[in-house]
Amino acid sequence: EPGLVSSEYGATSLARLAGRESGAYTAFNAGLRAALSRSFEGQIPGTSTPEDVANACLEAATAEPAPTRVVVGAMAEELIRLRSALGDLGWDGMLETMYPRPEPEGVSNARPKSASR
């Protein structure tokens, strides 16, 4: 359970958004591009490196007994703590602040209070 990993995954994800700079989801794609850049380029404190994950996997694979789960890095520890503390609604609410909601241009991203889960 590595949490966020500073790696080429972000660049690969961003490349898949290329050519989608116009249309109904222009604002969403721009927001997603910004969120992915922050998440995978090491701009968020506590992200792990691919080497951190590889070392944790090697250590787990050679441990007796092998652990069922391995938490790698401060970000992973914090995400696990938050997930437990916030519950489903709180967790979903937090994720909604991190990534944009896909809605066509001209439609507000704001959800009416009565529509919340």
Quick overview:
With 117 residues, the chain is an all-alpha fold.
Residue fraction in strands? under 5%
Shape: globular
| C-alpha Rg (nearest Å) | 17 Å
Helices, by number, come to 4
| Count of extended strands | 0
Helix share bin: 40-55%
Question: Which regions contain 5 or more consecutive residues with pLDDT less than 50?
Answer: 113-117
- Cα distance spanning the termini: 27 Å
Mean pLDDT across the residues is: 80
Order of helices and strands: HHHH
- Structure classification: mainly alpha
Largest sheet properties: none
Question: Which helices and strands, and how do they pair?
Answer:
Elements: H1 9-16, H2 26-40, H3 50-62, H4 73-98
Describe the structure.
- The chain has 117 residues and is mainly α.
- 53% of the residues lie in helices and 0% in strands.
- The chain has four helices and no strands.
- Helix 1 packs antiparallel against helix 2 (26-40).
- The protein is globular and about 55 Å long.
- Residues 113-117 have low confidence and may be disordered.
Looking at this protein, list some descriptive labels.
4 helices, disordered C terminus, globular, mainly alpha, about 120 residues
